[in-house]
Amino acid sequence: MEITKLVLNFLDEHLWPLILTVLIITFRQPISDLIRRAISVRFNFGGSAGGLEAVPPASSNSEDIEVTSSLAPIPEKEQDVAHQQAKSGNNWRFSAYTAFGKGDLDKAKEVFETHLRSESDPDQRYFSEALYLYFSYSIGGVTESINRLNDLVDRSKSEEQKMLALPWLAACYDSTKSYEKTAGLWEVTLREAQSEQATSGAARGLATAYQNLNQLDRASEVLSGHLEALEDQACRNGLLETLADIEKENGNEQVAALIYELLMEAKPGDREILFQAAYCQSDANLPLLSLRNYETLLGLAPSNAYANNNLAVCANELKVKSKAVELYQRSAELNETLAMANLARKHLESGFFNEARELLNKASSYDNPDKDVASALTTLNTREEKDEKAWKKLRKKADAFHQNSLQYIQAYLSSAHAPSAFAGQWMLDDETVIVTTVDGTSLSAEWETKPPTDALGIGFTRSAPITYDVSLKGSVTNGSAAVEYLKTRSKTSPPSGLLGAFGSDPVDCFSYLTADASTWRIFSEKHDKDFDMTLRRVTT
Questions:
Q1: Are 450 and 468 spatial neighbours (Cβ–Cβ below 8 Å)?
Q2: Taking Cα atoms as reference points, which of 289, 331, 287, 282 lies closest to residue 306?
Q3: 244 and 273 in contact (C-beta within 8 Å)?
Q4: d(CA 356, CA 354)
Q5: How far apart are the first and last CA of the chain?
Q6: Which residues contact 319 (CB under 8 A, 6 or more apart)?
Q7: CA 239/CA 252 separation, integer angstroms
Q8: pLDDT score for 356
Q9: Inter-residue contact 233 to 266 (CB < 8 Å)
Q10: CA quadruple 386, 388, 393, 396: dihedral, nearest 10
């Protein structure tokens, strides 16, 4: 699948954007509509399935936004995309494809040669010949075509031209599951690459070959290893998109979701990326980021029924029920049937404020309404105000989490800091000095702390102060660390009595070092944990 995307991305960025646009518009809808109708996604936040469904990234029918088929689930085999494109238009590709499918090799050759006589651009002629040979091999069953395609690669006039044929040669190998050959092809190309475009394309091709060989760690290393060396943002974006796919397949769903934050920094306002990012972040149990990105998308395209529905799923998970109902209703009014189903489920729960207000206003219009009507209206107004304040607070938290997450994923992918940079002495805000040790990529720190007098607002004193044992344990990747923060009442503290153990549940955190490694920021990865810690390096 990635092989075909490489070709389309390359054309989009360098040769024929107009032609590619026409192809996308022509071929997108039949594929993506079929996929969308075939897939029903049952959303799961943090392992708690609520039965509310979110629309997966696919082609949108909203006039305000188009989510192209590149965001829909891609067919398992790379050639499927090319075959679908060939079958979807009345051009030489369609005619040649049809002829190959019928076994009429002479007709296919005649169609292709007629096309070449009308095409003067050498790069387009070269690309067309590569595509023709690919169809000849994959559809026509002409085994000799792969050798001719190899020769075509060798006859390329430039590196840019060579990159137009290489993906189709790789697709031929992939069609017979010869992934080792594909990997060898891209390894040589990567070593010989001169331009950033060729380096990016070869790195993505090699990573995809490793992915097909189930060598996901090697695939990730190839992409992250070349990411820092590239200056061209379009090339970096291509690597990041592929890296996100591979990290997700490797079980690192949160890393994949956070990579989209980098993509959005590079392509602000890109509606397709916003939708994909928000969807993946919800799936990775990062609803704050999902909230932020769906809201940004709806600021650009308020009539996007799918985004309204999916933001409602986020609001429901974040326990702002009235906002969830409001968004479901908005999506349902835009004729999104999934939102209607979700709204039907919500009728079983509380929180339908609009319906409640309609009923109460109707009751208030009668003479001598029951006194409970006025009381219920007061309660409703209070609850709406409370929920609106909660929503505003979450939006602010989402902005702060976005900034920290961006720094974290940059530190995760950058090799500027070695894991050992976390080792040493650090000072907390209360001037407590702690010592962090790093063994390989394992990080740990332990210390004892004492809360301020009257920390609970009770105003009592003790002869023996309450102390706590605190620990940080986790794994380091470059200048980032995923850690668990745990604070428990120490055994030397006085008995807890009726007030409990004064302990806390472990907090899973992301953390990162600043560029100069003088500051270590730690923040909770969970939206419902208000935890943020800053440590400063102790210099001697």
A1: yes
A2: 331
A3: no
A4: 5
A5: 54
A6: none
A7: 16
A8: 66
A9: yes
A10: -170
Give the pLDDT confidence of 217-243 residue by residue, as tens digits: 999 999 999 998 899 999 999 999 999
Q: What share of the chain is helix, strand, coil (3-state, %, to 5)?
A: 60, 15, 30
CA distance linking residue 193 with residue 202, whole number of Å: 8
> pLDDT tens digit string along 438-450?
999 999 999 998 6
Nearest to 327 by CA among 39, 45, 271, 338: 338
State the SS3 of 74-91: CCCCHHHHHHHHHHCCCC
> Is 211 within 8 Å of 244 (Cβ atoms)?
no
Cα 388 from chain centroid (whole Å): 28
Widest CA span in the chain: 98
Residue 261 corresponds to which amino acid? E
pTM as predicted: 0.69
Tokens linked to 248: 């997700």
Burial of 497: CB neighbours in 10 Å, binned 0-12, 13-18, 19+: exposed
Contact criterion met (CB below 8 Å) for 442 and 476:
yes
Q: Cα(116)–Cα(291) distance, rounded to whole angstroms?
A: 51
